[in-house]
Amino acid sequence: MLVTLKELVQLAYKSDYAVPAFNIHTYEDAVAIVKGAEEMKSPVILMASPSAIKHLGIKVAACIMNELAQNAVVPVVSHLDHATDLDIIFKAMKVGFSSVMYDGSNLSFEENVQNTKLVVRVARAFGVSVEAEIGRVGKSEEGEEVIQILTEPDAASRFFELTQVDALAVAVGTAHGMQKQEAQINFERVEEIQNVVDVPLVLHGSSGVPDEDLTKISKMRFGKINIGTVLKTVYVDRIRKVLQEQPQLKDQIRLLQEASIAVTEMVKHKIKLLNSSGRM
Ligand code: G3H
Ligand code: ZN
């Protein structure tokens, strides 16, 4: 069933689990993610990033996610990820996303607050949930420098007071796009933030987080854990392997079915770590 982010994270953040949020890029990986969540009886958040929106178009992305959500036996959120453009946010609400992230983390504190407040006001009218970001989770893609600004607890507290978002993304040591699980979470900073702000927190760049830290963080005040890169990696790796093993293969359906199996396996593994199995 299709649900909002607010419903799911409100239940999770004060409990000993977090809701997994996975980036989708194609129809096939979206199906594979929902399959993994259903097999584990876990709620799940499907996220369309700017590159997924560029690839699929905003309407098709919404159709895929909402169709899968409505037919799923577990609660599913259709979420717009990292939108920096207000027009895209409002379009997403119109085409049926149940949740949006406004990412003003590159802006000044004041501009971020001002735009987020506007998004929250419109979203309330649509019954859509809102996530925003304070601090900045950098990128670690090859050749790019990781520019990370750890979230200041006081800024997080003021930001939440002013915007009343449903979930708040904070920078506590992760980076987007990591191929190895080598992120060093600053648990001290996590606690400092949690001591002053009472809102479900969101961890971005979670592909790079070691397994034991993912479990640890899911027991803290994080309601939503964002995972993208590792699913892309296993999807493409499996395609590479199948093509090497079966050079005569001429059927893309069979090829993508194999890739989907790899995605479902990884989704189930992450769900186990986040302890969200059976929470529906
Ligand atoms: O918003 C998406 C996530 O932060 C994904 O991060 O691709 O590094 O796992 P990741
Ligand atoms: Zn992110």
Account of the 3D structure:
- The protein is an alpha/beta fold.
- It has one domain (5-274): Alpha-Beta Barrel (TIM Barrel), CATH 3.20.20.70.
- It is 50% helix and 16% strand.
- It is built from 11 helices and 10 strands.
- The chain has helices spanning 5-12, 27-40, 50-56, 58-71, 86-95, 109-126, 153-163, 187-196, 211-218, 229-245, 252-274; strands at residues 19-24, 44-48, 76-83, 99-102, 129-134, 138-139, 167-170, 175-176, 201-203, 222-227.
- The chain has an 8-stranded parallel barrel, surrounded by 10 helices.
- Helix 5 (86-95) links the parallel strand 3 (76-83) and strand 4 (99-102).
- The chain starts with a helix and ends in a 6-residue tail after the last helix.
- The structure holds glyceraldehyde-3-phosphate (G3H) and zinc ion (ZN).
- Glyceraldehyde-3-phosphate is lined by residues 23, 81-82, 176-178, 204-208, 226-229.
Provide a brief overview of the structure.
The chain has 280 residues and is of the alpha/beta class. It is built from eleven helices and ten strands.
